[in-house]
Design brief:
This protein has helices at residues 41-48, 71-74, 91-98, 107-116, 131-144, 161-174, 212-218, 259-268, 270-276; strands at residues 2-9, 18-25, 29-34, 56-61, 64-65, 77-80, 149-153, 180-184, 197-202, 205-211, 219-223, 233-239, 242-248. The protein is of the alpha/beta class. The relative contact order is 0.15.
């Protein structure tokens, strides 16, 4: 559904942001796109959706050249950007204006999502709502579009703790085998139980693109080296509860994926992690 082949891009010719980004994403998964601030996550999302054009390489979405932004592709794609623009419209007016662009939009689902976010019947205009309320209204609309591809950039920014829990619940219920969901974030704790594919962007290329199952098959997330002393240690973090480690899973042991530890390990041992997942 989304394919990036040898993408090169830079806002100025003298400095490239991407040297050679190659990535394939398929339906039936919730992807988490991780990277440091300034790594180019938002820029990459805009290239995927045809809002920016690569200097070289090909970006394909739903078998179409993303740069062409064809109507039949756009009606099956929704991109919720971090920088929110909301018009001076009430929620019902916003739905009436924008829902017709999406053939699979569901009014019933929209009402349900708004209710779950405690926005049902909100009387105010969208631009008069708080930042968190605006975000929840737009998330509800995005889910109700039922597009084949749903891309979200930092969707949990501005949400309080209960709303983040509601977000995870709604995302899990909205995902299915025909839908591709891509979430870019630096708040990895918010996605811990949600995503099943992890992509890490670093230094102009994809450092890692693997399923959570594959990650826990190859890496062991352990405390105090308690189960095995074998395998290369990629990262250690001291905490009041003990020393957390990420190491090579040479004995095939089971462990729970920790996205924050994984990201830190990938940043500390870039070549080693990249080679492990080739």
């Amino acid at each position: 559904m989304i394919r990036l082949e040898n993408i090169q891009f830079g806002y100025v010719k003298s400095k490239r942001l991407f040297d050679d980004v190659t990535l394939t994403m398929e339906p039936g998964h919730i992807y988490g796109l991780l990277g440091k601030n300034g790594a180019g996550k938002t820029t990459l999302l805009k290239i995927m959706t045809g809002l920016l054009f690569p200097n070289a390489g090909n970006a394909t979405i739903l078998s179409e050249n993303a740069s062409l932004r064809k109507a039949d592709a756009l009606q099956n794609l929704y991109f919720l950007q971090e920088e929110m623009y909301v018009p001076h419209l009430k929620i019902a007016q916003f739905e009436a204006a924008y829902a017709p662009f999406y053939p699979n939009f569901s009014h019933e689902q929209f009402e349900y999502y708004l209710s779950e976010f405690e926005l049902a019947g909100a009387p105010n205009y969208l631009d008069k709502l708080s930042h968190g309320q605006k975000k929840k209204a737009l998330i509800a609309f995005a889910l109700a579009t039922n597009t084949q591809i749903l891309i979200m950039d930092e969707p949990t920014n501005g949400l309080d703790i209960p709303s983040k829990s509601t977000f995870r619940k709604l995302m899990a219920s909205a995902a299915d085998d025909s839908r591709l969901v891509l979430i870019s974030t630096h708040q990895v704790r918010d996605l811990h139980s949600l995503i099943d594919m992890v992509a890490i962007l670093d230094n102009g290329h994809m450092l890692l693109n693997a399923s959570t199952y594959e990650i826990t098959q190859k890496l062991l997330f352990d405390v105090d080296d308690s189960r095995t002393t074998e395998g290369t240690v990629f990262y250690t973090e001291e905490t009041p509860r003990g020393n957390y480690q990420v190491k090579e899973n040479v004995n095939g042991l089971d462990s729970n994926l920790d996205l924050e530890l994984l990201f830190n390990a990938a940043m500390m041992k870039k070549n080693e992690i990249a080679n492990l997942f080739k």
